[in-house]
Write a structure and sequence with these properties.
alpha+beta, 6-stranded antiparallel beta barrel, 6-stranded antiparallel barrel
C-alpha cells in the first residue's frame, strides 16, 4: 500500500469537506459594525430567511447603531431584537427576505475530535475561514454579567477579535456553536456557546426581547448518581445537579434545600444537568410554586419552592 497516496486521499477528503462547508455557509455569515461611544465590530449569521441574525451580546450591547454587511456588498442597518448578557447571545434583524441562512444543529451530539469550522471577520478581514477540531466539551466560563455559562465548546479553530458572534460549524454545515472567546496569548484555546443554548435564547429573545429567569439561590455542579439508586428505580436518570452552596435569604434556604442535595427533577420534568435546570427556571412563572425532586441521603424526596424572577 502506498502510504503517501493514502495520506493524500485523506487530506483531499478533509479539504473538500471544509471547502464545501465554506461554499454553503459563507453567504449567511455577516460582518457587524456598531457605534456607541466608540466603534466596534464582530460577526453574526443569518438563521431565518426573513433576516434574523444571531451574534454575541457583547458585540451589540448598548449600541446606538448596528450595521450589517453581507459578502455581496450590501450594507443594512439592523434592529436589536434583544440581547442576553448572561449567555452572551443576541438577536438582531434586517428587513430583507429570502436570505440564505444557516441551520442550528444539535450540539448535544458533538464528540471530541469532530471537525470544527469557524467563519467570521477577524480584524475586519471579511469572511475568513479557520478549521480545527472540537477540543473539549462541557467547559464553563463567566459571561460579562458574571453568570456562569455552562456546556461551552472548546475548539482549536483559530478565533481572533472580530470572530465573536460567528458560527462554529460541523462537517454538514450545521451551526453547532456561536464563537465567543479565545484565551490570549494562548494559541488554539477558543470557545463557543452551544447551538442548543442559542436555539433556546434566540426563541426567547424573538418572543419578548428578553430572557427572564427563575432564581432559587444555589451554586451547583453536575454529578453522576450512585448506580444503586438507578438500579433500585429511585430515579430514571443517571446524573443530576448537586447543590454545593446556598445563598442566604434565598428561596432555596427558605424552602429547605441543603448543600449536598441532588436535584433530579422539577415539576415532573427530568433534571440531569445544569442546562436542564437553567431551562426550567427560565420558564418559571412569577409566584408559582414548583416541586423539586431531590436525592438526599440516598432517599428521593419532594420539596416545594417558589423561585424569584430575575432578568
Amino acid at each position: 500500500m502506498d502510504i503517501r497516496n493514502s495520506d493524500e486521499k485523506i487530506l483531499d477528503s478533509y479539504s473538500q469537506t471544509v471547502s464545501g462547508v465554506f461554499q454553503k455557509a459563507s453567504s449567511a455569515v455577516v460582518n457587524i459594525e456598531v457605534k456607541h461611544q466608540a466603534q466596534g465590530s464582530g460577526s453574526g449569521f443569518v438563521f431565518t430567511p426573513d433576516g434574523y441574525i444571531i451574534t454575541n451580546s457583547h458585540v451589540v450591547h448598548g449600541a446606538r447603531r448596528i450595521d450589517v454587511c453581507f459578502v455581496d456588498g450590501r450594507r443594512i442597518e439592523a434592529q436589536l431584537i434583544g440581547d442576553d448578557p448572561h449567555t452572551d447571545l443576541a438577536v438582531i434583524h434586517v428587513g430583507l427576505q429570502d436570505l440564505n441562512f444557516l441551520h442550528l444543529g444539535d450540539s448535544s451530539r458533538l464528540r471530541v475530535g469532530q471537525i470544527a469550522i469557524a467563519i467570521g471577520n477577524p480584524y475586519s478581514f471579511q469572511c475568513t475561514l479557520t478549521a480545527g477540531v472540537i477540543s473539549a466539551l462541557g467547559r464553563s466560563m463567566r459571561s460579562q454579567s458574571g453568570r456562569l455559562i455552562e456546556e461551552i465548546i472548546q475548539t482549536d479553530a483559530a478565533l481572533n477579535p472580530g470572530n465573536s458572534g460567528g458560527p462554529l460549524l460541523n462537517s454538514l454545515g450545521e451551526v453547532v456553536g456561536v464563537n465567543t472567546a479565545a484565551i490570549l496569548p494562548a494559541q488554539g484555546i477558543c470557545f463557543a456557546i452551544p447551538s442548543n443554548t442559542a436555539k433556546f435564547i434566540a426563541t426567547e429573545l424573538m418572543r419578548s426581547g428578553q430572557v427572564r429567569r427563575g432564581f432559587i439561590g444555589v451554586m451547583v455542579q453536575n454529578v453522576a448518581l450512585p448506580k444503586g439508586l438507578v438500579h433500585m428505580g429511585k430515579t430514571p436518570v443517571e446524573s443530576g445537579v448537586s447543590i454545593t452552596s446556598i445563598e442566604r435569604g434565598s428561596p432555596a434556604e427558605r424552602f429547605g434545600l441543603r448543600p449536598g442535595d441532588v436535584i433530579v427533577g422539577m415539576d415532573e420534568q427530568i433534571v440531569s444537568s445544569i442546562d436542564d435546570l437553567h431551562k426550567l427556571l427560565t420558564k418559571a412563572i412569577n409566584g408559582h410554586e414548583y416541586k423539586l425532586t431531590v436525592i438526599r441521603d440516598f432517599e428521593k424526596i419532594n420539596i416545594s419552592i417558589v423561585p424569584q424572577l430575575s432578568k
